[in-house]
Amino acid sequence: MRVEHARMHAKHRGHEAMHAEMVLILIATLVVAQLLLVQWKQRHPRSYNMVTLFQMWVVPLYFTVKLHWWRFLVIWILFSAVTAFVTFRATRKPLVQTTPRLVYKWFLLIYKISYATGIVGYMAVMFTLFGLNLLFKIKPEDAMDFGISLLFYGLYYGVLERDFAEMCADYMASTIGFYSESGMPTKHLSDSVCAVCGQQIFVDVSEEGIIENTYRLSCNHVFHEFCIRGWCIVGKKQTCPYCKEKVDLKRMFSNPWERPHVMYGQLLDWLRYLVAWQPVIIGLVQGINYILGLE
What we know:
GO terms for molecular function: ubiquitin protein ligase activity; zinc ion binding. It comes from Colobus angolensis palliatus (Peters' Angolan colobus). This protein starts with a helix and ends with a helix. The protein folds into 3 domains: about 1-40; about 45-175 and about 260-285, no CATH class; about 180-250, Zinc/RING finger domain, C3HC4 (zinc finger) (Herpes Virus-1), CATH 3.30.40. It is mostly helical. Helix 3 (about 45-65) crosses helix 9 (about 260-275) and helix 4 (about 70-90) runs parallel beside helix 6. Helices cover about 65% and strands about 0% of the residues. The chain has 10 helices and 2 strands. The model has no long low-confidence stretch (mean pLDDT about 80).
């Protein structure tokens, strides 16, 4: 080990200027890429979201096959198959009445599983760092691998699920007619219809429902509680599906036990950049270094 370390130092001795140049290239590429991505997202959000979703879906598949992570590949295939079916249902016209709830139930299930998996993975990593794995006679490397694997599964499928859910939510709401991504809705919304699923609302806001409650936003539009929660948390929307007034998530999730779901969703939105674009940027930096003859 020491011999290899010495060889590495000997190989790179006198290359300080080259290494500094490589660091500058990395920083400059990161800054320029971030500016371009922000402009792309602001000016052409639909194409940005589609390309980002495609990259998050495909890039890990390349590393999975290359590194022989067969367990991940099996889970990826199962998730992709069911999600493809749900997405197909969500993009059909006319939209079947039961489809919106089917879509939100599937993505809410994945969201909860990813949330629980991420929490367990994080706890496993923390237990290993504090040496608590020794109480169960588990090797540190095995415990750390277990924790990091669960953490990766939870965060990756959490990010992927939210982007697919957002796309399906846009398609369904636009098909129903009470929502338009740009411009005015094609239908007038009455107080007895939920704009998310297009179905009748039978429970008054002031009443306690047997199956589910009805929720009124600050803009006075009412929805099935399950639908509006799916729209905001699973579908990543923070505006009213009809008038696009901003939704107060703190008011909607007044229960302190539900607040972490909002924070977890924000974390996933931040991680999607790392999952989708970071490998591309690093590959671009390596290409620039190769062209310039830097090692």
